[in-house]
Amino acid sequence: MNLPTATQINLYHVCHRQLWLHSHEIRMEQESDMVYEGKLIGENTYARRSNQWREVDLGHIKIDHYDPRNKIVKEVKKSNKLEAAYIAQVKYYIYYLERNGEQDVTGLIEYPKLRRTVEVELTDDDRHLIPLWQDEIRKILDSDECPTLVRKNYCKTCSYHDFCYAQ
Ligand code: SF4
Question: Which of 55, 78, 104, 128 shows the greatest Cβ crowding within 10 Å of its Cβ?
Answer without folding.
Answer: 78
